[in-house]
Amino acid sequence: TQLLEQSPQFLSIQEGENLTVYCNSSSVFSSLQWYRQEPGEGPVLLVTVVTGGEVKKLKRLTFQFGDARKDSSLHITAAQPGDTGLYLCAGGGNQGGKLIFGQGTELSVKP
Amino acid sequence: NAGVTQTPKFQVLKTGQSMTLQCAQDMNHEYMSWYRQDPGMGLRLIHYSVGAGITDQGEVPNGYNVSRSTTEDFPLRLLSAAPSQTSVYFCASSSATGAGGYTFGSGTRLTVV
Fold it and tell me: What residues does B7 pair with on adjacent strands?
C-alpha cells in the first residue's frame, strides 16, 4: 500500500512569514502533484513534478521533488492571507490513473 | 466548458437506502476517479477507471460500486448506506498523459442518518 505522510497537519502563521510543508513516502512515485483546496470546493492543481531533484516555482511558492522521488516539499515565501487553504500532495503514475493523496496541511495566514 | 459536473450537491439518506452519485466530464479524459474526504484524512480513493469498461478498486472500495459505460460518465453507487459513509465525495478526471493533473468536481455532501 502506498502512503503519503504530510506534515504539519495544521499551520497558523502571521502574514509575511515563510513556511514549508513536507510530503514523505516509503514508495517511489512517477510524479508528485500539489493541490490547493478552498472550503466548499474541489482541489485545484498547483504543480506537477516528475523528475528527481526537480524544483518548480510558482510566484512565491517553491516545489521540490526529492532525488529518490519519494518525497516533496512546498515552501511559501512571505505568506499572505490569500494563501490560506488546505494544501494536498498526491502521488501517482505507478498504476495508471491511480492518484493517492496525503492527509493535507491546513494553512491559516493571519493579517 | 463545464469540466467535471457532480450531482447532487447535497443528499441525506437513511441507513440502508441506496443511491447513485452522478459524475460527468466533457473534456474527453480517459481517467476518472471517486474520492471521499473526511476531516484530517485528506482524500481517499474509492474507485478509479482508466477508460470505458475498465474500473478498479482504490483504498476504500467497500460499500461502493462503479461502472464506466461511456468516457463521459462515472456514477458511484452506494448499495446500502451506513452512517460511516457520511462524507464529502469528489469525482475527478484526467487525461492519460497526466498533463494538467486531475480536474475535480465541486463535491457531493452526503449525510447518512
Answer: B22
Query: In the A/B pair of chains, how many CB contacts fall below 8 A?
Result: 73
Contact by Cβ (8 Å): B78, B13? yes
**Residue pair A107/A19 in contact by the 8 Å Cβ criterion:** yes
**Span A59-109, pLDDT tens digits:** 999 999 999 999 999 999 999 999 999 999 999 865 667 889 999 999 999
The phi and psi torsions of A36 (rounded to 5 degrees) equal -125, 135
Which residues, in sequence order, are CB contacts of B100 under 8 Å at separation 6+?
A45, B94
Phi, then psi, of B70 in degrees rounded to 5: -130, 165
C-alpha cell at A18: 515563510
**Nearest residue on chain B to A2, judged by CA atoms?**
B59
Tell me if B106 and A33 make a contact (CB, 8 A cut-off): no
DSSP string covering B43-102? EEEEEEEEETTEEEE-SS-TTEEE--SSSSB--EEESS--GGG-EEEEEEEE-TT-TT-P
Using DSSP's 3-state secondary structure scheme, residue A83 falls into helix
Between A46-55, A91-100, B34-43, B71-80, the lowest mean confidence (pLDDT) is in A91-100
